[in-house]
Automatic annotation (TrEMBL):
This is Aldo/keto reductase. InterPro entries: AKR_Detox_Biosynth, NAD(P)_OxRdtase_dom_sf, NADP_OxRdtase_dom. Keywords: Oxidoreductase. It holds the Pfam family Aldo_ket_red. SUPFAM superfamilies: NAD(P)-linked oxidoreductase. GO terms for molecular function: oxidoreductase activity. The keyword Disulfide bond does not apply. Residues 16-294 form the NADP-dependent oxidoreductase domain. It comes from Paenibacillus lentus.
Length: 297
């Protein structure tokens, strides 16, 4: 495994992290604690130290799986990133709640679920600009940093071209930007990444496999069932993505190289990216994801 500095946080994160949206049940499968334990144990065995989760991956469900795991392991072995701003109701149904009083309750609920007394990175989660521009919210969060409940603040931008929230990071003491970035979606390179570089912000690249399109598993014409998150995408977008992936596989991926590993390493070839946070369904996928570090210079 290789490690990079997460911007001005000074945390050293594994270049491959573990995304845990799937633990909340919205990937069309339900996890149990033993399955989560096996995934996280394999991650640690591979040198991974970063877990990314959120309050609304289930109703703190993903956090609870992670907390149960960490309660039986060394907490200091992991850098835990979670998020705030939503109440989960059912699959793909959430409401935005970003007022300071409620976010404080969300923080305490996350700490309880994670069975920890501190969160390494607490991220504003895909909220609109008008709720981001709330001094009361960030003043409250700064107090939680001072109290030791949170080590660092970050922003998971909903639009991967949200320059407003990125540019305002230093003002609100947000030290990390999480953004969609992959070979099919390079928009952050234009404005967001230069802003991150100017401010020495850490960058976490989410959806690095483009919701599985870059996994190498799917050919043009592939169909996704109703329980698959890709089924919710526009059919024409899916068709174009599958055709572009086939072209990338043919023209860009070296012979004999696993496409998913290549796609993760592609993100990391950009030095602004501190870590990629792909999801995974089993320990075998963790091993495959971790292997992408070998392709990074």
């Amino acid at each position: 495994m290789k490690y990079r500095r997460l911007g001005k946080t000074e945390l050293n994160v594994s270049v491959i992290g573990i995304g845990t949206w799937q633990f909340g049940g919205e990937w069309g499968m339900q996890f149990n604690q033993d399955e989560v334990d096996a995934i996280l144990d394999k991650g640690q065995e591979c040198g991974i130290n970063l877990i990314d989760t959120a309050e609304c991956y289930g109703d703190h469900l993903s956090e609870s799986f992670i907390g149960d795991y960490m309660s039986r392991r060394k907490r200091e072995d992991w850098i835990v990133a979670t998020k705030f701003g939503h109440h989960f109701h059912e699959r793909f149904t959430r409401t935005d709640v970003f007022d300071a009083e409620d976010v404080l309750k969300q923080l305490d609920a996350s700490l309880k679920a994670l069975k920890t007394d501190y969160i390494d990175l607490y991220q504003f989660h895909s909220g609109p600009d008008h709720v981001f521009d709330n001094d009361k919210l960030w003043t409250m969060l700064d107090k939680q940093v001072e109290a030791g409940k949170v080590r660092h603040l970050g922003t998971s931008i909903g639009s991967n071209d949200n320059l407003h929230q990125t540019d305002a990071s230093s003002k609100v003491n947000s030290k990390v930007i999480q953004v969609v970035y992959n070979r099919l979606d390079r928009v952050p390179e234009n404005r967001v990444f230069p802003s991150c570089e100017r401010q020495d912000l850490g960058v976490l690249a989410r959806v690095p496999l483009a919701s599985g399109f870059l996994s190498g598993k799917y050919k043009p014409g592939a169909q996704f069932d109703a329980n698959d998150v890709r089924h919710r995408k526009d059919a024409e977008v899916v068709r174009r993505n599958l055709e572009e992936v086939e072209r990338i596989r043919r023209d860009e991926v070296p012979a004999g190289v696993d496409m998913a590993q290549w796609a993760l390493a592609w993100c990391l070839k950009n030095p602004i990216v501190s870590s990629v946070i792909p999801g995974c369904k089993n320990p075998e996928q963790v091993v495959s994801n971790a292997g992408a570090a070998d392709l990074v210079e």
